[in-house]
Amino acid sequence: MKQWHPVPAEYAAALVKRTWSKDNQAPEAVAYLWTWSVMRNSVTVSIRDLARYAGWSNWKARQMLQRVRTEYNDWEAEPHRSVQQPYSDRTPAEHQPYTKPQQKQGLIRVNQTPTVQEPDTNRTPTERSRVIPNTNTNTTTSTKHTKPLGSDGVNVAKVWDEIQTKRKAVVPGAKQMTLTKPRRKVLKARLVEHCEQDVLSVVDWWLNSTHKRAVYLRQEGHGIDTLLRPSNFPQYLDFSKEAKSPTRRKPKPDPKAPPKRPQLPTLADYSSEEIRKAQTELIALRDGMKPATWKNAILTYLHQERQKQTVAKSE
Predict the structure, then answer these.
(1) pTM (2 decimals)?
(2) Same-domain status, 229 and 287
(3) Shared-domain flag, residues 219 and 291
(4) DSSP letters for 68-126
(5) DSSP β-ladder status, 107-108 and 132-133
(6) What is the pLDDT of residues 195-234, one digit of tens each?
């Protein structure tokens, strides 16, 4: 049977925020967790998406994606259990009747209903069941209601409200955008892959930046759906970070550095009449010259003639 090491969702979300490249490729565990986390949010992952994120080749990304899809589908097909229950693949000895201990302190059951079998603390926890130690001796439960967080520790509704506020501040009178189910899934996926600050930074860039891509998105009417698309978001995030980075100041000229030599004019700086006159004067010297040498000879002649004209005017 395949062995598993469970990872809390918030740890997986923090781990996959790091970016990878071909020179610094993601480990297989990170790529597996990233793909699983995105698929868990009902977002389709393509070979290209995985290869771009992990810095892998398409071939390697295809192999990993096939494995994750197979194991994810197998996992979805199994019954989900919040407490320990008998498995069909256990040995007959494990199915012996269980007698509840007289007193067992320090243990609580999570989401247990009256019909669920009591967890056996003497057995080794399986890959799908665990007993959580009760470290809180106070049995009083809080009745304070707050906005629920998702299983990945992200508050999609809160971030969506902030996006609405930023949009209305820039576009007064704009219609209220609806947080549809597809939008919720895509927004949640971006929050899991990155963070709340990154999402809001991209929104600010989209609404306020003078970057040509941001201007194009606004002029063509591309909205939040285009912004949060998996194939577009990483590039827009890079643009937003570049906009926030301080501009480099031009270095001051070194007073001890030797002065730069003035560049000679090119043929484009002279009229066709002047060029024809120079070619006529130097035609006798053209035989045996290479094209580049002939061009330099004409430029030198034109430059000398213009200097003579400047000296004559000054006198």
Answers:
(1) 0.34
(2) no
(3) no
(4) HHHHHHHHHHSPP-SS----TTS-GGGGS-----S---SEE-SS--TTSPPP-TTSPP-
(5) antiparallel
(6) 888 999 999 998 898 888 888 888 888 888 998 998 889 9
